[in-house]
Amino acid sequence: QVQLVESGGGLVQPGGSLRLSCAASGSSFSIIYMGWYRQAPGKQRELVGGITSGGRPNYVDSVKGRFTISRDNAKNTVYLQMNSLKPEDTAVYYCNARTLVTNSWGQGTQVTVSS
Questions:
Q1: Higher model confidence: residue 110 or residue 30?
Q2: Is residue 90 a contact partner of residue 113, using CB atoms and an 8 Å limit?
């Protein structure tokens, strides 16, 4: 299993920005893919986006143009830059890391967009 530590969540006003960070450690295998998911109250967990081992990001349509996923050069940290936040972005955001043999999740970090 990969240990994932998330940070950066909090309360912001509509139109504001947040940057989430997910630091990975403890893996004996190369991380192939890291993704961000979110789960709003009463809803299923959904994919926000992710980034491949080659550094190629992808996003769902609802966040495309507002969110940006990036990683550091050591491939041990992934970021989710969230701009122009909307109330419907309110959710617990989870980091996911995949290797050839494991699929790991972070503890989740709360993002609340409210005035």
A1: 110
A2: yes
